[in-house]
Amino acid sequence: MIDWLIEQLWPLSLAIVCVLLCSKLLHSFLSAKFQYTLWLLVPLVLILNNLPISNSLSLETELHHYVVSVKAQSKSLDIYGFVSMIWLLGFSLMAFLVIYEHISIGKKFNKNKQFSHKINSHLPVYYSDSVNSPVLFGLLKQRLFIPRDFHASYDTEQAKLIYQHEWVHYTRQDNWSNAFAIALLLIFWFNPLCWIGYSQYRKQQEVACDAAVLAHANRTQRIAYCRALIACASDNHNSLSSYSYYMEKSTMKQRLNTIQKMPKGNVIVNVLLSLVLFAGLTSVAFAKYGEGTKEYSKEEAQPIVRIEPVYPKQAADQGIEGSIVLGFTVTNNGETDNVTVISAEPQGVFDKEAKKALRKWRYKPTGNTNKQYLVQLDFALTEEYKSKDLLERIKVTSH
């Protein structure tokens, strides 16, 4: 898992930085909807980076030579295990908090709720004592919760605009998009760029929703909408919740300023930027496929974790030394598979322990799960033992 995370780190970070820079530098030329749509670049890059390469059977075998000491193997395994434990601990803790918060909020919203009406005959609206501003909550069964004094606090025009705002969230299925974004954030919780990107993504989501509501609004309606937003602003800090909320007061000022200077977007800039991003994504895909079509090199079969085989006690007692060549494939997550004995001298002495150890090795995924690799293990009792190097070489000593 750790090696997969490391593989995704660079393209993911590059995609986030690209979106942030485009929104910052080209803000006045890009519409709010286009800026929000730009965040699709993040999952698209991840998908392209994980597309299967070539599944055709490769008949070539490479001669890779390694000399790995027992100390180096133990150190590699310890570091790998420690990093895996830290990542899993962080992921588990955050996942628990997100799930617990979602369940707690759901119970709170549903307590003493009262049905009001449906928006466009689809989205049910409920009164609730647990909300101080409208909240679109849920994934499979989405509901809009409003304060009991909602219609007393807002005039007819303001209430209409607020309902339109929530309807945009509902039709775009923003809650599902938010849940997916939170899932990515949990997986890459250690990357600070993911936190920055997630925060900006949620803000631009709301701005894009504001733009959709005010697309054909007159000046009076814009003023009414801004007053409604100010009234809806709250001290909401549930930033890792999938439901759509009106954000805290510190962010509302930024939204109001954006509404006043709402850019309609420059069609030429939007088209050119789309072409540039498309070309960038295509280059990522071709680069990935290119790796699958070129001749395999040592870098494509790099071992990450090596476990030294146990020297068979009977062989050690009898002073038997020898070598064994094993064939194997590498799965998509870097595990060894289809471990078989290619040749051994002497036969049947080191097979069991060699295969047992190799099944615990971890490699950097190559993307070609059908390619067979070879590894030679030398079982030596003394430093004087010599054998021919076929592929990878690790000496196994008696303890």
From TrEMBL:
Keywords annotated in UniProt: Cell inner membrane, Cell membrane, Membrane, Protein transport, Signal-anchor, Transmembrane, Transmembrane helix, Transport
Record InterPro entries: Beta-lactam_resp_regulator, Peptidase_M56, TonB, TonB/TolA_C, TonB_C
KW Transport (keyword) present: yes
CDD domains, alphabetized: M56_BlaR1_MecR1_like
Pfam families: Peptidase_M56, TonB_C
TM region positions: 12-30, 37-59, 79-100, 179-198, 267-287
Coiled-coil positions: none
Keyword Nucleus part of the UniProt annotation: no
Topology in membrane: Single-pass membrane protein
Top-rank taxon, per record: Bacteria
Domain TonB C-terminal: 296-388
Compartments (UniProt record): Cell inner membrane; Membrane
Cited function: Interacts with outer membrane receptor proteins that carry out high-affinity binding and energy dependent uptake into the periplasmic space of specific substrates. It could act to transduce energy from the cytoplasmic membrane to specific energy-requiring processes in the outer membrane, resulting in the release into the periplasm of ligands bound by these outer membrane proteins.
Sequence similarity: Belongs to the TonB family.
Annotated PANTHER family: POSSIBLE SENSOR-TRANSDUCER PROTEIN BLAR, SLR0241 PROTEIN
Protein name per Swiss-Prot or TrEMBL: Protein TonB
Native source species: Pseudoalteromonas spongiae
